[in-house]
Design a protein that fits this description.
14 strands, binds manganese (II) ion, Isopropylmalate Dehydrogenase, single chain, 2 domains, binds 3-isopropylmalic acid, alpha/beta, two-stranded antiparallel ribbon
Amino acid sequence: MKPYVAILPGDGIGPEVMAHTLKVAEHIAPDLTFKTGLIGGVAFKETGQHFPKATADLIDGSAAVLFGAVGGPVEQQHKPQWHNCETNSILALRQHLQLNINLRPVHFYPALALTSPLKNERFAACNDFVILRELAGDIYFGDKSTVVENKQKVARDVAEYNEGQIKSIAHWAFKLASKRRNHLISVDKANVLQSSQLWRQVMEETATDYPNVKLSHQLVDNCAMQLILKPEQFDVIVAGNLFGDIISDAASALPGSLGLMPSASFNPSGFGLYEPAGGSAPAIAGTDLANPMAQILSLALMLEHSFQRHQAARATHMAISQTLDDGYRTSDIFCHGTQLCSGQAFTDEVIHRLIQITEKKNDI
Ligand code: IPM
Ligand code: MN
């Protein structure tokens, strides 16, 4: 049987950016088969569950998963459809697939120099960098409880790491750093947290296997500041689940918008799930204002890592860069003198360029 890709559009802007992305896929990977499943609030509405068994079966038979976003409006969190939606869907999915490595690339498009919050000289000095976020442990998956003690509610989320979990991402991080500029920055809060002290110790131990890679450490609060003050210093950042979540949102804003950042998550056997780093943005869902770049670039990451189609991934990147170079912008990256587009119109421009690029394949 031909392996298929499981498509999980989810909630909010998920379905619209996914629809645009599948149009890109028709051009760049016309032979791939896609099967769509339900996840998140939309799944709850249909089946009473955020992550139905049918969806688990669908992904279990798939070659890779392309995921959109889940979750509802903040003011509706009390409704059963949205209550714990993220935990029951995306976190359950990560657990189901045992995804422990999350790769979040930060790419500086020259065309977005004016959109970036960075000053021009700083923007020009920036290099692309990558955040590797541990995805299976930490405060996300430690014991949780809400109890009444001394007549008041007490809520707990335990931040926990074992050596094996840290070792696994450490090797990924060092291997990645040795394929790039041999500089790894590990982020923790080792001045106060025991889980961070273990994190740092395992990073140091693993470093001895990779003598060419220079390892340095940054406390997470300092890292947040360094991202804003001196982003050009980064090449590969490795961080635990919570710190990686926070610093990757901050880092995504440097090139211009969270809507630019794709992500790839892997389990120890190399199975991949690909999703935008941003969320479901319910406030703009249905308006086609959302930037489809993060979803399209997640498709490119999937083509590269799960299907080894490097040329197709590269062509997709080129088409997106050219679309930006030619001045087309969704509202999140719009600035004076550029052409404001809907998600659909932006995607049409990308596809137009993709066709031209793939027609003269030798240039890729
Ligand atoms: C992300 C998201 C998720 C996370 C939420 C939706 C659970 O913020 O993928 O970065 O915290 O991991
Ligand atoms: Mn996040």
